[in-house]
Amino acid sequence: MDIPGLIQSYGYLAVAVGTFLEGESVLLTAGAAAFHGYLWMPAIILIATLSGFLGDQISFYAGRKYGNRLLARFPALQLRATRVSALLERHNVSFILAVRFMYGLRVAGPMVMGMSNIHWSRFLILNLTGAVIWAITIASIGYGLGQGFGYLLRFLDAKEVWLLIALLLPAIIWRFVVRRKYSARSKHS
User: Fold this and answer.
1) How far is it, in rounded angstroms, from Cα 13 to Cα 47?
2) How far apart are CA 168 and CA 118, in angstroms?
3) Contact 29, 3 (CB under 8 A)
4) Which residues of the chain, if any, have pLDDT below 70?
5) CA-CA distance, 189 to 42, in Å (whole number)?
6) Phi and psi of 118, rounded to 5°?
7) Cβ contacts of residue 74 below 8 Å, gap of 6+?
8) 161/168 Cα distance (integer angstroms)
9) Where are the domains of the chain?
10) By the 8 A CB rule, do 84 and 108 touch?
């Protein structure tokens, strides 16, 4: 089942689970669903904030308790751990607030922060603040995209929709190829 189907079938539960695990695509879709009246935007933001916050708190405490064992078991995380540590040293507060917006660091970031000397209460406060900012931002973007696509589709006929798909498809394929190359490079490093 695809993400829109999950949102349609499971609503707020899909938002909770999706934002607990990673979340951007689920939250964008939920925001678009809110525009169309299927979900209530304040509930989406509250659920995404709490689920995202909880997911990062668990990763933080897993890093605090099992960090070195996790890095030994999953060597691919080592590259991300090194990157997170360097960013954390230079930009402590802003990095904690923004880590959930950084591709590939959403899970590894809080885990490595747990391995650092950051006090748990400092992380808790900054993580909650970041979760609120993230939930409002991503859900609002989804809401806007839902509005924009709805508006755009009113003026397009079937030929123009296919043209739009033909124009977007190379960008999507390019993104997929770049993502695979990055993933393959990370595994070999």
Assistant:
1) 9
2) 43
3) yes
4) 1-8, 104, 149-165, 181-189
5) 43
6) -65, 130
7) none
8) 11
9) 3-155, 157-189
10) yes
90 burial level (CB within 10 Å; 0-12, 13-18, 19+)? exposed
For residues 52 and 17, what is the distance between their CA atoms, to the nearest angstrom?
9
Q: Which long-range contacts (CB under 8 A, 24 or more apart) does 71-80 make?
A: 76/186, 76/187, 77/108, 77/111, 79/186, 79/189, 80/104, 80/105, 80/108, 80/109, 80/112, 80/186
Dihedral sign for Cα 62, 67, 71, 72, please.
negative
Contact in structure between 95 and 126 (CB atoms under 8 Å):
no
Cα–Cα nearest to 146, from 10, 23, 38, 17? 38
Please state whether 37 falls in left (phi above 0), alpha (psi between -120 and 50) or beta: left
pLDDT in tens, 93-135: 888 888 888 776 777 789 888 988 889 999 999 999 999 999 9
Phi-psi region of 11 (alpha: psi -120 to 50; beta: other; left: phi over 0): left
Q: Is 106 helix (H, G, I), strand (E, B) or coil?
A: coil
Q: Return the closest-CA partner of residue 98 out of 115, 110, 111.
A: 110
Question: How many Å apart are CA 106 and CA 23, to the nearest integer?
Answer: 10
